[in-house]
Amino acid sequence: MASNRAHHVTGWAAGVIAAAIVHKAGAAGPWQIWTALSFIAAVAGGTAPDWLEVAWWSRKRRLWITHRTLTHWGLGWIGLAVYTYRHLGQHPLAALGLGFACGGIMHLLADWPNPLGVPWLLGRHSLNWWNSGRCDIAVVALAWLAAFAVFDHAWLHDVHNDRVVRMFRAMQSSS
Q: Domain of life here (predicted)?
């Protein structure tokens, strides 16, 4: 599991991704309101798999569900993202759902390298790369690289993505 701080920072990266997707889909709404709200929903979704486990209605605020079970189920978050993406432009709240799902998926991706893993389909799967809280900088860097690539595609028409691809092709041809 990534640290709480890493989940917050990667949630912001998920917000950039969600806002770019909503904008690119033409579902931004007047004054880009749905773009902004999808960003906010993604920031909240970046920590949601953890806070959804807490019994907020009880005084002790204990977990009502075992950690990394239903709230960390990858298929559920991906299903929400697909469903809401398909409804962008048809239902205004779809942008909020997509943002929330993007944040949740980013949370799972940040937890995946941990030995405890994430239940993507049925059982847990782990990349088993490092223990909790270690290498948060790598998780954050990868999240923000993904956010920049999606942002570049949606708003800058792949100007920077194309340059990176050309650079790698040039490196391959020279070796």
A: Bacteria
Instruction: Render the burial of 3-34: b for 16+ CB within 10 Å, e for the rest.
Output: eeebbebbbbbbbbbbbbbbbebebbbeeeeb
Tokens of 107: 């949370």
Report the alpha-carbon distance of residue 111 to residue 23 in Å, rounded. 28
Q: Residues with Cβ < 8 Å from 60, sequence gap 6 or more?
A: none
Residues, the chain, total? Answer: 175
Residues 6+ apart with CB under 8 A from 137: none
* pTM for this prediction: 0.88
User: What is the separation of C-alpha 58 from the centre of its chain, rounded to a whole number of angstroms?
Assistant: 29
DSSP 32: G
Q: Calculate the average pLDDT of the chain.
A: 89
**CB count, 10 Å around CB of 133?**
13
Identify the segments of the chain with pLDDT beneath 70: 1-2, 57, 61, 63-64, 66, 132-134
Task: Report the DSSP beta bridge partners of residue 54.
Answer: 63
